């Protein structure tokens, strides 16, 4: 079983997440693990994203740091990618954002590339096993799937 410390150590291999190719080091590390540990990584990632699936984060606008202008609402996909960017920022930032929702806003920037995290375990698993990825995690990380984070069934997207 992959511990949270193991998960965050792999995430720590990302380095500076503002540059495009930040997936290679953790992909290489995951590809050296047994398939069950790769699945464990995906489960930890899903749980981390699920915990960030809350209205106070989803209601924040996108801050387009690439071309400053008027902020605009997040879409379901951009909200998922912003949550990925929080995870990619590492354990300390992740925990700080959970404690203070105002710290989520910078992670909505379109210059961050959090989406790549969603494919990391799948690609490593397929490389290691030669089999197609067919894993369903306990936690659904799609936007607005955390009922506790979106009370009263009111959804943003």
Please characterize this protein's 3D structure.
The structure is a single chain. This protein is mostly helical and 157 residues long. 46% of the residues lie in helices and 3% in strands. It has a two-stranded antiparallel ribbon. It is globular. It starts with a helix and ends in a 28-residue tail after the last helix.
**Topology order in helix (H) and strand (E) letters:** HHHHEEHHH
| DSSP summary: helix tally | 7
Q: How many beta-strand elements?
A: 2
Strand order of the largest sheet: 1-2
Largest sheet: 2 strands, antiparallel
List keywords for this structure.
two-stranded antiparallel sheet, 2 strands, 157 residues, single chain, mainly alpha
Condensed summary:
The protein has 157 residues and is mainly α. Helices cover 46% and strands 3% of the residues.
In terms of topology, how is this protein built?
Elements: H1 4-12, H2 24-30, H3 35-51, H4 55-58, E1 61-62, E2 72-73, H5 76-88, H6 91-99, H7 117-129
Antiparallel strand pairs: 1-2
